[in-house]
Design brief:
Layout (H helix, E strand, L loop, with lengths): L3 H9 L8 E2 L8 H7 L10 H13 L5 E2 L7 H6 L3 E2 L8 E2 L20 H17 L4 E7 L1 H9 L1 H10 L1 H25 L3 E5 L9 H18 L4 E4 L8 H4 L6 E4 L5 H8 L4 E4 L3 H5 L4 H14 L3 E2 L11 H12 L4 H6 L1
Parallel strand pairs: 1-10, 2-5, 5-6, 6-7, 7-8, 8-9
Antiparallel strand pairs: 3-4
Helix pairs in contact: 3-5, 5-8, 6-7, 6-8, 7-8, 8-9, 13-14
Bound molecules: zinc ion.
Zinc ion binds next to loops.
Length: 341
């Protein structure tokens, strides 16, 4: 019997598996999952053991083939010095105010990885490796420099300066990319088998020309420098850039339901794996058992390698819908469906 870990990692490499893989590179935590485990936000963002216990439920309660403990978008921003509102059980953390102006030189603290928000995540990855590492894939997460730019400068200041001061933006991105490299390498050392690289470069905030000018080379460099398989997560309609993303060498793309599955597979080609694509609002939150069964089949037949939610799951969604989606996907045989791909 092939273990979930191997199924997940083989699926990331588009190798044959005995059944479809399931899982997510982004948060699968819901309030009802917190209640089930007895660990809640915001403590789970800043306590390594609680973080690991909640993440483990992605496998033990939901049945996904991976676990991923970095639920918030603020861990490395907080470690960089950004003031963070850690939220509540029903509210995800947010960055309170920008740390820099666009002309400032960003300084990565020497002790970045020892600072609490990074340290607890590394501790959680180590615990997950210890508890479940034989059985399931342990996935870490780093933010790409585009997202970190929002956190350092504020979204408006950052985006305005992609037009007003592109050189300053490029300088900032070059520094911020090193945060992803350092934190990512430390996560692999702590026990991560693979990493999510999350970069919020959706079309409405990053035009195809801006992706080309600011990000393509950086994503290609990160694919090379991060020492494990990497899944890039970008929300929204990414159909205009999937053909470029496949040229970065990143192993897998975690896509949003705004891109129809067949379109995503066509654009991704044969080499790049696809994860996700299941609508949070329509399917994870509101799906009937029949809808979830149909969704699993559509995704597998459409060429999605790892079935799961498109992005961080809304906190008020029922986690049992993810469990059902995973069960339905896993019940579909792998081999004959894969021949059609
Ligand atoms: Zn997303």
């Amino acid at each position: 019997m092939m273990k979930p870990r191997e199924i997940f990692l083989r699926a990331m490499g588009r190798e044959a598996t005995p059944r479809p893989a399931t899982g997510s590179a982004t948060s699968i935590v819901t309030v009802d999952l917190m209640d089930k485990v007895g660990v809640w936000f915001p403590e789970a963002h800043l306590d390594g053991e609680k973080m690991a216990r909640l993440a483990a439920a992605g496998h033990t309660e939901i049945g996904f083939d991976n676990v991923m403990p970095l639920f918030s978008v603020c861990q490395e921003a907080a470690a960089m010095g950004v003031e963070v509102d850690w939220g509540r059980a029903e509210v995800m953390p947010t960055c309170r105010r920008p740390l820099y102006g666009i002309d400032d030189e960003i300084v990565i603290p020497e002790d970045l990885l020892e600072r609490e928000p990074c340290r607890v995540a590394l501790e959680a990855l180590g615990l997950l490796k210890q508890w479940l590492g034989e059985e399931v894939a342990v996935v870490g997460k780093v933010f790409g420099p585009w997202t970190l730019g929002y956190h350092m400068f504020g979204v408006e200041e950052f985006l305005a300066n992609t037009l007003l001061k592109p050189e300053a933006v490029k300088r900032a991105l070059a520094t911020l990319k090193e945060v992803a490299v350092r934190f990512g390498a430390a996560q692999v050392e702590a026990g991560a088998d693979a990493l999510c690289l999350a970069d919020h470069a959706t079309r409405d905030v990053c035009s195809p020309a801006a992706y080309e000018e600011f990000l393509f080379e950086i994503h290609r460099e990160l694919a090379e420098r991060l020492p494990c398989p990497v899944v890039l997560h970008i929300c929204g309609d990414t159909s205009d850039r999937i053909p470029r993303i496949r040229e970065t060498g990143l192993e897998c793309f975690h896509f949003d339901s705004k891109v129809p599955t067949a379109v995503a597979r066509g654009l991704a080609g044969e080499a790049m794996a696809l994860m996700g694509g299941t609508s949070n609002l329509e399917v994870i939150q509101k799906g009937t058992p029949e809808r979830l069964r149909r969704e699993a089949r559509e995704k597998v037949e459409g060429g999605v390698d790892i079935v799961g939610p498109e992005c961080a799951v809304p906190l008020d969604a029922p986690y049992l819908n993810m469990k059902l989606l995973a069960e339905e996907a896993k019940a579909l045989g792998g081999t004959e469906l894969r021949i059609a791909w």
